[in-house]
Design brief:
Radius of gyration: 25 Å
Shape: globular
CATH architecture of the largest domain: 3-Layer(aba) Sandwich
Strand order of the largest sheet: 6-7-8-3-9-10
Number of domains: 2
Oligomer: single chain
Strand content: 35-45%
CATH superfamily of the largest domain: P-loop containing nucleotide triphosphate hydrolases
Largest sheet: 6 strands, mixed
Distance between the termini: 43 Å
Helix content: 10-25%
Number of helices: 8
């Protein structure tokens, strides 16, 4: 077999990343699970790979870990190509969705396991275990408890402790919070953020949960059908989605398809259904263009009478879902031949609506994202 071709690196890069995924592709027969993806991971960064089920994010993580080998491209760790290295030579910590703790062992034995595999001096192991238990905020006297006697949250902390006790170059998290209930998941999100801040670990985290990604990540890599849709800081991903997929996947978003009817300076009117939608443009739209418009649910105003907005339409409330801190409305807009999602957090009785109410729905041109179809 011919030797693997390692892609050339950019010699002008300002800062060498701890991990570099460089034009990586993974094929399984005719199926392309990951397609020409490049992601640099910075020292001390919390990077989340986000996407729906089957997007290729776990395959990408497994290639970083060494469980899978790229079909094309290369992965570098500390500037070293590692595709031909086994997992145990990569100095990587791992936490899986299943946690993969040893149920027949105590907390101490679970955490000590990777240290013993690395032939650490026995006299050093106890001290390291106590340090890491303090970091994950488990009482030191828990080290003698059988791991099966712990709660789900406590087991999660043991799994994190075991993954970082040997001070890995990189920590990989494969949907570790997905099996937890809502309250515990929120608690562990906060704990992970704290641990990252206190240790400055470089973390690559995989999830399909956008709330997890937005709340924890420094940057997010959005993956769809094996390809990288956008790589940017969390706030930028939400405020400036680069593609229709990112706009629809991140947040509660309604998509409208239409054709540009006219352009007037920085404004354009898009024909949607039997009406028009005003949008902002930087000059990239011309009459006749097919476009997709993305609307965030929280940017849409509802009123029993009228709304002060660039776009306003007669509408009917079809569904109401009260969620405590907010209310979700599903609203039919006949003139646009569509149904839109609306999120309201205002407790004012005048802005509370019931199923069947006739309302006005509206939003400003500046609150839309516009993409080529």
């Amino acid at each position: 077999m011919a030797p693997k071709q390692i892609p050339e690196r950019d010699p002008d890069a300002e800062e060498e990343p701890v991990v570099e995924i460089d034009r990586v592709t993974k094929r399984y027969g005719s199926l392309v699970a990951v397609n020409d993806v490049s992601i640099p991971v910075r020292d001390g960064e919390f990077l989340t790979i986000l996407g729906p089920s089957g997007a290729g994010k776990t395959t990408l993580l497994h290639m970083i870990a060494g469980f899978e080998r790229p079909s094309d491209g290369e992965i570098y760790i500390d500037n070293r190509p590692v595709s031909d290295e086994p997992p145990n030579e990569r100095n990587i910590g791992l936490v899986f969705q299943s946690l993969a703790l040893f149920p027949h062992m105590s907390v101490k034995e679970n955490i000590a396991f990777p240290l013993k595999m690395r032939r650490e001096a026995p006299e050093d192991i106890d001290g390291r275990i106590e340090e890491v238990l303090e970091l994950v905020q488990l009482p030191v006297d828990y080290k003698h408890k059988p791991v099966g006697d712990l709660s789900g949250g406590q087991q999660q902390r043991v799994a994190f402790a075991r993954a970082i006790v040997y001070e890995p170059t990189l920590l990989l998290l494969d949907e570790p919070l997905s099996s937890l209930d809502k309250k515990l998941r929120e608690e562990m999100r906060s704990e992970l953020t704290r641990i990252h801040a206190e240790t400055d670990l470089t973390i690559v985290h995989v999830t399909h949960n956008q709330t997890e990604a937005l709340s924890m990540a420094d940057r997010i890599a959005v993956i769809n059908d094996g390809a990288l849709e956008q790589l940017a800081p969390a706030k930028e991903i939400y405020a400036e989605p680069a593609t229709p997929f990112v706009a629809e996947f991140i947040g509660d978003t309604t998509m409208l398809d239409g054709t540009v009817d006219r352009v007037d300076g920085g404004r354009a009117t898009v024909a949607v259904g039997d009406d028009g939608v005003a949008v902002e443009t930087d000059g990239g739209l011309t009459p006749g263009d097919g476009v997709r418009i993305a609307l965030r649910a929280e940017k849409i105003a509802l009123d029993h009478n009228s709304v002060d907005a660039d776009n306003a339409y007669d509408a009917t409330v079809k569904q109401v879902a009260f969620e405590g801190d907010q209310t979700q409305y599903t609203v039919s807009v006949p003139s646009l031949d569509t149904v839109i999602d609306v999120t309201h957090q205002d407790p004012d009785p005048e802005t509370v609506f019931d199923r069947g109410d006739a309302v006005t729905a509206g939003w400003d041109a500046a609150d839309t994202f516009v993409y080529d179809q």
